[in-house]
Design a protein that fits this description.
It is a single chain. The chain is α/β, with parallel strands linked by helices and 618 residues long. Helix content is 52%, strand content 13%. An eight-stranded mixed sheet has the order 3-2-1-4-7-6-8-5, with helices on both faces. Helix 2 runs parallel beside helix 3, helix 9 crosses helix 11 and helix 10 packs across helix 11.
């Protein structure tokens, strides 16, 4: 069994365990254990503080407050605390209008206003630090989520049991897509099974009730605040339960772009919380440990598992002509194609199972982007409503509209570059592993063919910006005789170049001589895809003869392969470089659009693989 097949089997087993085996085991054991419930009577009425954070929620704030005013719970036993986090719309006005009516019903509601947007974590920490000691239970809830009118009564009933620290309910959508609804049906079923053991890992952020004695302020850069709040309350051996009769209705329907952006953020939070809550792996509660590792840890890593699986499938299909891998890729391609056609022609009819496959692929694509964004510091900024980040600029005109569009384009390019870096790290790691047998064979062949070192280092020009141009040593397998430039000096290689060894000629035709550059990629000096890194000795002459030549690597790392390389091959003279410059600029422009960049990136990768397999290099 070769290495590629072993890796694919391992990744498949992890995927199947997380999505199918774990839920089955959880359901199997849950059926043999009655659900946890309190035996206390409903006369137990703790003081409840309802905590709400709002940033530009004018569409839902009135509806939310009226929903809370209708709760079947003694009005003297609950209060509402709202933080308006730098709102720039009419949220404050509408909240004040609704609160005036609540006051007429003798329901206490108070507004805390932040002049500037400080972020959801800062808002939550303000509420926790200010009001934690005033209430027995804190209920954290989203503005756009409505609760059943008996929600507070049911929450109070559960908290009569001192072992219970966290209570939540069933998360539903007032209006949702088929794929989204199936996903949350699956999640609700999973959480109900976990609830039988009091070990729910992660409750819906739309509503989470926590015993105030166990509420702790959040880490300042926490992303999935709801999950971390709940899990912090369980660190002392307490239980978390889901009430199957407590309904949480999400009123806001996400558009496709907004939903994708939210999944990017959630995936980043899932990845972050593995580290923030790693101490849970030492929990004395075996069910909490089992659920945390099987559910949340694997969920945080699953985008990387899926990405590595797709890359391995592609490698097996192309390099080894593996029928099973080709069939799997064909199914994925068909699903994506059907999804694209439905989007382009605005077709809303369900098309199972392709809709489900596309939803999973889109979720894990968002997950990879979220992990990339988190690893590059993309979430060190205040929280705000997702759609603002993706808002249309069609209402703007003139100079202001141009500025907004420019900022959006720059942000898109910045996001692509950050995601590109994560792809570089993952791709270079996988590349080194998969190519290690070839690299070992190449090292042996080089040693047997000619005298000299196996590896060759050469100074190259890297990424440039306004103040700095990076120089680095590129790593390659030696393909020329030792001291090949001692008499001729630095010159371009040419077809039939006598300086190239017999083995070196094969290495250059298959591009195997470039494989050590994976090390440059891991060091951050190069990218997998980008402009060719030129030698400083040629740079002055090229800049003199080709206008704006130095802009090729402005803000972009040079690459092992690139659009110019796969379209034109190796450089032999200045004219070859001149003909490539347009390809390099085209690639740089594609970075401003994630969709165009991703399409171009895969095209370059496939062309590079074709050149290597068919020996089309020079």
């Amino acid at each position: 069994m070769n290495l590629m097949l072993s890796v694919l089997i391992f990744l498949t087993v992890v995927f199947i365990y997380h999505h199918f085996i774990y839920p089955y085991l959880l359901g199997f054991f849950a059926k043999r254990k009655p659900s946890m419930s309190s035996s206390a009577d409903n006369a137990h009425y703790p003081r409840i503080g309802i905590m709400i954070c709002a940033h530009n929620e004018e569409a839902f704030i009135s509806q939310k407050l009226f929903n809370l005013s209708a709760m079947e719970y003694p009005i003297e036993k609950y209060e509402i605390q709202i933080v308006l986090d730098g709102c720039t719309d009419e949220t404050k006005l509408r909240a004040e209008q609704a609160i005036s009516q609540l006051h007429q019903q003798h329901i206490c509601a108070e507004i805390h206003e932040f002049t500037n947007n400080q972020g959801k974590v800062a808002a939550l920490n303000h509420l926790i630090n200010t009001h934690k000691d005033q209430y027995d239970v804190l209920v954290f809830t989203d503005v756009s989520a409505l609760m059943s009118i008996d929600a507070l009564t049911r929450i109070a009933h559960h908290f009569a049991d001192e072992k219970i620290a966290v209570v939540s309910g069933i998360y539903q959508f007032y209006d949702s897509s088929l794929s989204q609804e199936k996903y949350w049906q699956y999640q609700n079923k999973l959480k109900l099974a976990e609830s039988n053991y009091g070990a729910v890992v992660g409750v819906p952020g739309a509503m989470c009730a926590i015993r105030s004695a166990h509420v702790k302020p959040l880490f300042s850069h926490a992303i999935n605040d709801d999950f971390i709040l709940a899990m912090q309350a369980l660190c002392e051996g307490h239980h978390a339960v889901i009430d199957a009769h407590l309904n949480i209705i999400e009123m806001e329907r996400d558009q496709e772009g907004v939903d994708f952006a939210r999944r990017v953020r959630i995936a980043a939070g899932n990845f972050q919380q593995i580290y923030l809550l790693k101490h849970l792996t030492k929990s004395a509660n075996p069910w909490l440990l089992f659920n945390f590792v099987s559910h949340k840890v694997l969920r945080g890593l699953m985008p990387l598992v899926v990405m590595c699986g797709v890359v391995t499938l592609m490698a097996a299909a192309i390099l080894e002509n593996h029928f099973f891998a080709q069939a799997c890729l064909l199914i994925l391609f068909a699903s994506v194609s059907i999804g694209a056609m439905k989007k382009w022609f605005a077709i809303e009819e369900p098309c199972a199972p392709f809709d489900q496959i596309n939803y999973v692929l889109a979720s894990y694509a968002a997950g990879c982007m979220g992990i990339a964004k988190y690893c590059t510091g993309g979430f060190n900024m205040p929280w705000r409503r997702v759609e603002q980040t993706n808002s249309s600029t069609t209402k703007n005109s003139g100079k202001q509209g141009t500025t907004v569009q420019s900022n959006t384009t720059n942000q898109s390019a910045f996001n692509v570059i950050r995601f590109k870096r994560v792809m570089d790290i993952v791709g270079a790691t996988i590349g080194l592993v998969l190519a290690s047998p070839i690299m070992i064979a190449a090292m042996v062949a080089i040693k047997l063919d000619s005298k000299g070192p196996v590896f060759y280092q050469q100074l190259r020009v890297g990424q440039a910006d306004d103040d700095f141009v990076e120089l680095f040593q590129v790593y390659k397998f030696r393909s020329m005789f030792t001291d090949a430039e001692l008499q001729s000096g630095a010159v371009w290689a040419s077809k039939g170049d006598p300086r190239i060894t017999r083995v070196g000629r094969f290495l250059r035709k298959t591009r195997i001589d470039e494989l050590p550059q994976f090390i440059n990629v891991l060091k951050g000096e190069m990218s997998l895809i980008g402009p060719r890194p030129e030698r400083p000795v040629f740079y002055g002459k090229l800049e003199d003869n080709i206008p704006y030549f130095s802009l090729r690597t402005y803000g972009i790392k040079p690459g092992i392969s690139g659009l110019a390389q796969v379209m034109n091959g190796y450089d032999e003279n200045i004219e070859d470089v001149r003909s490539k410059i347009g390809w390099d600029y085209a690639y740089a422009l594609a970075l401003s659009s994630p969709k165009q960049w991703l399409s171009m990136e895969w095209m370059i990768i496939l062309k590079t693989i074709r050149i290597v397999v068919l020996g089309k290099g020079q």
